[in-house]
């Protein structure tokens, strides 16, 4: 049994009826003997409305006031869930970030949790009271409300689980983590387990299942995370299996995954634009002179590939970014041309990044070769390649995305039988 | 100049556009050299939505959770107004009840303010920062959010003004206090000044201009209160007159009212039911045996008239209450009949209470006689009479309400010329 943090996102608490459904999930875990803390997001649509009001008030606005306004969404859900729990006979109380307190740094709008003082909550859990904590928020050194940035409720939940030494179940509108996007890969399978590292790569690649920072936190504090569906019936016989064969996907340490796959999943992101700088002076500081100004312009750069050029003295450099940022990026680079010292700049849109992820590739040779062959067999040209310890990404023509993802899914033996 | 608390209600902050209008009122006062604190209600409609969610969650719900949910409405307005003020160049920050802190007792849902520690706000005001405080809320001894009950933002404003030793301007959707209801009395005049005591009587009689408790607080702490319109243009030349001849009505001490009228206003409330108990045993404790059980049943009793009966040994007792409570009241009294010991009970609906209010009647004879004559001249029968030091109320047939109010308005010389 032990302690359990359950986290429910915006669509799971969209109205009072759904909040009642959430209460039944909580009831099940309480009856199974757990000490339960719940972390909730704002009712879906609520945060957007609050954000829009702030924008209507002023295009550029004080992040501290934004936080005070926007944090109210989670406060409402927490109170309502506590009421509904009490109604079905479960002792419960709501906790706002400042009440716990969830201490954060002072970066309003995108704060990081520094510490959670969960002593009072721990005491209440032991007395059988369910704690319902408003996610996404804390209190800064200035004693004002801070928010963690969009999706921050996952992070709140994992941080609370770390403070309570609890496991953490993230209830979402999907029932787990899949080997690939089921919308384009019919044969995608739900993974029963996945390592933190792999989940982190998937999250950074845009899989919306978990927020990147929550996975990082889970990894650092070794919080077992389970991704599961809030829409599966709360009393389904599937629900109470904690061995990783249950209804969701367990994100855990590598060692806990018995049958390690070489590759666990295939991810993709379309909408990649590509910029190539040719014959860049190959001297210290040149990368900084390129990516510094882009960062200042708040342009996120994704893949970066640098290679020596044919003449041997200069380098060729390619990077990708979101299509929408391309025009601004080109302007920035043109402005900095003299400082950077490149001879040619070219660009292309319509790219897609396809990645294979797997902790097993650390110890297996030939993973990359299998990828390149599978793509080549389908006549798919590779524009750029980057690798990390547990991921290989290639940039291809976006038109081939689905074909490539399905081919790789089959090639690495991920297809459901 | 000096310190000023400005309070804006729900309709004055109904959307961001109206909040911008409020900001212009604040700007005017800042430019006039005031140190300004603002107290805001929730955007109109917002509180109802939050209350309905709580009711949907559970018909009977934890008042502490209700408070946490409902207090979010004012929190949102305070943040938005701070943003809008900053946008027009006025330094401002929002304050939630727990941040100030506004300390209250622990009666969730209907808390009373115990103390406001306004030191930090005072410091900031002196530095030129406008404080925007969320009304209607505070923090209880349990460190949880408390709300003051409906309309509590007026009370928040007056309490803050008391703590800041400031005057308090209550901006509302009417432009002041009138001698009577302008909807039925064409010749009703706006009063430039009214005493706390008179305002208190008017508020208890259902004039919705100010909440009763806010007037009480203002009286106790001698906070000059001004009722004025938030819909008059912020830059109207009328706005900056502080001598009581300005656009609103000043609620102040009797001594500050130079030309004291004998009667300041005529109020009425329809919807009065009447219960009469005849030949009640005239012994100590009999009133308690009647009104105790009614209070327990949460039935508010309004006028109470007791008189000796014809036989001299027993009393006759009449009281009024809202029509909707009549049936329940009769049931309660029937149940308690033996304990109370009355011989006959009768009742009537369709009554109206008409009151003349005036601090001047303390020192003037004949005020009551004038009232009775004016009513008698119009053939209006009086069912019951109660008096206080500064008020005479009569119960009449509701059909004659408008006629009676207009007749009295004329009789006491209140008609506008």
Please, could you describe this protein's structure?
2 copies of one chain form a homodimer. By secondary structure, chain A is α/β, with parallel strands linked by helices. The first copy, chain A, folds into 2 domains: 3-255, Acetylglutamate kinase-like (Carbamate kinase), CATH 3.40.1160; 265-411, VC0802-like (2-Layer Sandwich). Helices cover 33% and strands 27% of the residues of chain A. Chain A has an 8-stranded mixed sheet with strand order 3-6-2-1-9-11-12-10, with helices on both faces. A 6-stranded antiparallel sheet of chain A has the order 14-15-13-16-18-17. A two-stranded antiparallel ribbon of chain A has the order 4-5. In chain A, strand 4 (102-104) and strand 5 form a beta hairpin. Chain A is globular, with a radius of gyration of 23 Å. The mean pLDDT of chain A is 91.
The fourth-level CATH homologous superfamily of the largest domain in chain A is Acetylglutamate kinase-like
By secondary-structure content and strand pairing, the structural class of chain A works out as alpha/beta
Tally of contiguous helical segments of chain A: 13
Q: Which residues of chain A form runs of ≥5 with pLDDT under 50?
A: none
CATH fold call of the largest domain in chain A: Carbamate kinase
Q: Give the CATH level 1 class of the largest domain in chain A.
A: Alpha Beta
Q: What's the shape of chain A?
A: globular
Give the chain pair forming the largest contact, with residue counts.
A-B, 35 and 35 residues
Q: In angstroms, what is the radius of gyration of chain A?
A: 23 Å
Report the oligomer: homodimer
Write down the domain tally of chain A. 2
Task: Report the sheet-strand fraction of chain A.
Answer: 25-35%
By DSSP, the count of extended strands of chain A is 18
Query: How far do the termini of chain A sit from each other?
Result: 34 Å
- The CATH architecture name of the largest domain in chain A reads 3-Layer(aba) Sandwich
Query: What is the topology, as strand order, of the major beta sheet of chain A?
Result: 3-6-2-1-9-11-12-10
Average residue-wise pLDDT of chain A: 91
Largest sheet of chain A: 8 strands, mixed
Instruction: Work out the helicity level of chain A.
Output: 25-40%
